[in-house]
Q: What sequence folds into this?
């Protein structure tokens, strides 16, 4: 073998070794990529559902979009709730402190991605703003060994602790990945009783395991008072009866109060322990008035106008406020009386005998 043949043999050996090494690598590396970050001016969720950092400053909200990738963990000392938040199969929600721009994203199958939005996108996350981040998992998806478990919780806001790890519930839903086997959970929400439970998870790739969780409200006694003596109270459309002591759920609820001769009262209130439930109603413009007249009469007038169809001891409608009542009795004359018309007024007695 001459020198030229020997040299060519060495080159072919190197090429063969390189090809053999490359064939042992995966067809495509598994990694995470952040493709875009933008402030969405018309998205006001950071203000409508606020969170505050340790300095009592309003946080920014990050919505990190990535399809079908549970188990992503966000790391930074400026993320609330330890960096773990709701994932609905498409989006993670994170609240972060004002001015933050660095964090890392970690996934068991796709590794760690350091993020610096100041360097890569020229921005810092600002208080009260909502940002959309678009994350992509690159490479073949590994075989799934866990089962998707979806908690449907009522009320829609709160948290669920699964095997000791706490997750936030957003819009009544929480999706987590769990290994087959036995698991424990605790559901909690403000003004509701917490609930503990156990799960027996069986792997079924065709569909998620759905767990309904309904919490019972915390009840407290409130004294319902009103300036309308016949007032009737409704809380979240449920009739609670008239004035007096009521056992009602804590938190924000819709109340409605109705009464004869009074305009309906309606508003949302937040019930807290020790609060008083008092309602001031406004009278209707026209309310019933009853005259009981003793003696023989020829006519009954209000403000010098005859009361059409008036019947003794039966109510007629009169405008609230002060009025002149005049009762005539033939050739003998008349009798005047000034009355103040208000709701729920007593029968007015007039004696002309």
A:
């Amino acid at each position: 073998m001459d020198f030229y043949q020997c040299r060519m043999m060495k080159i072919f050996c190197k090429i063969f070794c390189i090809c053999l090494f490359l064939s042992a690598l995966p067809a495509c590396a598994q990694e995470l990529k952040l493709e875009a970050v933008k402030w969405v001016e018309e998205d006001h969720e950071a203000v409508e559902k606020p969170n505050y950092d340790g300095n009592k400053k309003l946080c920014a909200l990050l919505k990190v979009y990535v399809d079908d990738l549970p188990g992503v963990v966000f790391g930074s000392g400026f993320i609330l709730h330890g960096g773990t938040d709701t994932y609905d199969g498409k989006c993670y929600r994170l609240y972060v402190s004002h001015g933050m721009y660095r964090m890392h994203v970690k996934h068991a199958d796709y590794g760690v991605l350091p993020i610096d939005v100041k360097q890569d996108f020229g921005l810092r996350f600002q208080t009260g703003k909502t940002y959309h981040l678009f994350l992509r998992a690159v490479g073949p998806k590994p075989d799934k060994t866990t089962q998707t478990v979806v908690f449907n919780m009522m009320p829609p806001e709160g948290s669920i602790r699964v095997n000791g790890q706490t997750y936030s519930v957003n819009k009544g839903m929480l999706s987590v990945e769990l290994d087959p086997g036995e698991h424990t959970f605790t559901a909690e929400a403000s003004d509701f009783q917490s609930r503990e439970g156990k799960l027996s998870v069986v792997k079924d790739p065709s569909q998620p395991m759905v767990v309904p969780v309904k919490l019972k409200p915390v009840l407290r006694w409130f004294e319902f008072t009103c300036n309308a003596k016949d007032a009737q109270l409704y809380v979240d459309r449920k009739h609670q009866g008239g004035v007096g002591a009521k056992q009602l759920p804590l938190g924000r609820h819709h109340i409605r109060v109705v009464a004869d001769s009074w305009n309906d009262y309606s508003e949302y209130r937040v019930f807290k322990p020790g609060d008083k439930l008092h309602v001031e109603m406004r009278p209707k413009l026209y309310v019933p008035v009853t005259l009981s007249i003793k003696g023989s009469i020829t006519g009954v007038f209000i403000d010098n106008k005859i009361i059409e169809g008036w019947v003794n001891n039966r109510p007629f409608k009169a405008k609230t406020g002060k009025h002149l009542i005049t009762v005539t009795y033939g050739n003998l004359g008349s009798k005047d009386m000034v009355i103040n018309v208000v709701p729920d007024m007593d029968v007015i007695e007039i004696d002309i005998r």
Observations:
- The mean pLDDT is 86.
- The longest helix spans residues 3-24.
- The chain has three helices and 28 strands.
- The radius of gyration is 37 Å.
